[in-house]
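Hi,

Apologies if this is the wrong queue. I'm a grad student, and the batch job for ABC transporter permease from Serinicoccus chungangensis produced an output file that my downstream script rejects. I'm not sure whether the problem is my script or the file. Here is the sequence I used:
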Amino acid sequence: MIRLVGVELHRLRARRIVVLALVASALIAGFALFTVNQQAVQLERARSGADAAFQEQLRWWEENGERERASCLQSQEEERRLSGDASVDFGCDQMQAPTPEQMYGAMPSLAGQYDELLLALAYPFLLLALLVGSTHVAAEFTHRTMGSWLTFVPRRGVVFAAKVVAAAIVALPVTGVGVSLVLLGVPAVFRWHGIDGGGTADQWVVLAWAVVRIMVLGALAGALGAAAGFLVRHSAVVVGVLLGYLAVVEGILGASLPQASRYLLGRNIQGFVENGTRWTVYADCWGPTGECREVVERLSFAQSATTLILVVLLVVGLALWRFLRTDVD
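Support response: The file is valid. Your script probably expects a header line. Output copied below for reference.
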């Protein structure tokens, strides 16, 4: 078994898809770092007075701000008088001169920046790992080399396990390249612009475990992709099924039934990476007052891990059953 996994890893290294996935992972991380750098540049320009768009908003406020606030206060007093409710608040006190942070967003701490980027980038990294695994196996069926391979190793179960394990192992560097570039690039951007990263020891421990969980997800995605390749035997079908799931289930069903999102893969991946997650849904929006009721939903790490592992085991089990029971060619 170990020898077969080594052979599969050697074959995977020779495939162009692995190199392309590594390059894509690096490009995705590079683009994310570029956006972080651009936000820091825009904030610096706005603070120094070199940003034309911000200066235009600031000039408009200097000319019209007090008048707009006075008009707001007048409308607020009129509404209070007509309704008899002294608690009516139009938010006039929050009307003030614009700040660079309001226009371009405040730079989070170093740990906060990591949290935002790693969660957002986990999804494309996992997609790349899945594509590497599925393409490697599906190519065997497309080029009709699986039958030849079984003449050398006639034990289908062992061949199946070797290919799935090899795909999971190769998924680690595919995911790790992007994660490593983010981990190294964000502090470089902060230091270049003289931003104090901050962060406590507890935050760094949480971040380290988040990185470990992302790497585990990468390995699971690689194994899932290989199993999907065995199941449908064509990489284009794997991609089509994935896109259909994202569009119909994650997109349409997730938007129309927000209470069901705890059972979707996207939410469970988030819960796994964040060690449990929470989000807000709005219920009873058709009541007599027209006001929605906020409901905080919570998803534990244990439930997320269980859901993801069950999905992987289900696909792997179906793929193994088909590979053992049906003809290769």
